[in-house]
Amino acid sequence: MNVMFRTSIGTLLVAGLLIACNQEADQVKEVETEVMDIHDEVMPKMDDIMRYKKQLSDKMTQLDSLQQEGVSSNTLAQERQKALELSRQLTLADSLMMEWMYRYRGDSAKALAPAEALSYFNQEKEKITRVKEQTNRSIQETEEFLK
Asked: What are the sequence ranges of the domains in the chain?
């Protein structure tokens, strides 16, 4: 009976470890999916960024033309400065996305132990969330400015 008891305990421990590993693997997959969902939500906005940068450039050219024609005011200078700052913010959002994609190593992370992979994907989720926030903020501010 003592041998059966030890065998049963051993079997339960192995089963418990397998269940824990499967749960960790499920968590890794879940967080990885969340990371890619955020990426997939933000990536199409890169086209918007380029379009808005062009519109801001056109706006700055228009403001420069007005100044060259002799129209001078603090409002024109402020508008131009705001357009320039918004263009910089859009460029930053685009750069953050490109950098994140360049550094992302999802396939390599899958080869890590589940706990390490989970940590990696959680860090990537934080990074891509910051990219999303910068992208959305810069687009929103630009849309308001261009109205």
From this structure: 23-146
- Structure pTM? 0.80
CA atoms within 13 A on the CB side of 86: 28
3-class secondary structure, 43: coil
56: number of Cβ within 10 Å:
23
pLDDT per residue as tens digits for the range 17-36: 555 556 888 899 999 999 99
Q: Is 12 exposed, middle or buried (0-12, 13-18, 19+ CB in 10 A)?
A: exposed
Closest CA to 121 of 136, 132, 111, 135: 111
Instruction: Tell me the per-residue pLDDT of 53-62, one tens digit each, with 9 for 90 and over.
Output: 999 999 999 9
